[in-house]
Amino acid sequence: MTTAPVRHGIVAGIDGSDSALEAAKWAAAAAERFGEPVYLTHVVRGNSDLASLGDDEVATRDAHPNSHAFLDAAETAIRDGRTNLTLERRIRQGPPAKALVEMSRTARMLVLGPAETTEMQSVFVGSNVVRIANHAKCPVVVWRGPAVPADQDDRPIVVGVDGSDLSDMAVAHAFEFAAFFGAPLVAVHTWSEHSSLGGYSEARRFIDWAPHEEHEHAVLAEALAGWSEKYPDVEVTHSVQRGGPMKILLEHSAEARMVAVGSHGRNPFMASVVGSTSQALIHRAWCPVLICREG
Fold first, then answer.
1. What is residue 293's predicted lDDT score, i.e. its pLDDT?
2. Is the pLDDT of residue 203 over 90?
3. Model-level pTM?
4. What is the spatial distance between Cα 151 and Cα 171, in angstroms, rounded to a whole number?
């Protein structure tokens, strides 16, 4: 008999960039709300086996000078005014995506800076952010957008809902975030003529779409059933829109605190062929993106 791992801590990937510092600040704010420690983690690139090198295990800071400098800057950035935050620094060795995916097995959440590539570059040269989001065993937040202090951010959390199991996971995490941050929640369900009837027909021009839209409202209501009872303080808005989920969720991201979606973990090439809402959001959203997959 196997048991699920105890998930603990919010891992923030630190690579020395300014965007990683902003992601670390976001991770610290989330850690405070969730009552979790934050693990500032820098991965030393290399081909050797993964090794966890905590500060207390490194004989001298000269061993990894850049790593410690990056972690010093991140710690300074997130310590400001946070007296109750539990923080640990970690240095790991190996391919960055592999190292962070390994940490995701027991973490509650991974938080990363924005993707360093465009969607097209991800297809041909790859992206660590996309690799991690596609393979992590816990939810991954990709930080994007302007830095807004948590106590001044009244924007809603947006969750994409399609009735799938992965969507159900996104709904669960979105409600949890909304409750912890005291944010309203907008549940977005999209539909199109193609998904409703399939194929093209001239007769579609004369169809009364009202019954189809009523059905889509019912799909959204069923997907959200029970969550408002579990989180009665979360203000929920239902949004059923006609169109593609990628375009509509990107539009919502412009006025959202965070967008949460499920992900099938398609590689960038397959995503470019069949489309991937999560990967479009990773590269183009105007706010942080929460990617949920089966662990």
1. 78
2. no
3. 0.83
4. 23
111-162 pLDDT per residue, tens: 999 876 544 444 434 478 888 998 999 999 999 988 777 667 889 999 999 9
Domains 10-113 and 150-289 share a fold: yes
- What single-letter amino acid sits at 108? R
Strand locations in the chain (E)? 10-13, 38-44, 51-54, 87-93, 109-112, 140-142, 157-160, 185-191, 236-242, 258-262, 289-292
Output the six-digit token pair for 293: 């997959």
Residue 256 CA to residue 242 CA, distance in Å, equals 19
At the topology level of CATH, where does 150-289 sit? Rossmann fold (3.40.50)
Res. 60 pLDDT band, cuts 50 70 90: very low
CATH of domain 10-113: 3.40.50.620
Residue 252 to residue 223: CA distance in whole angstroms: 19
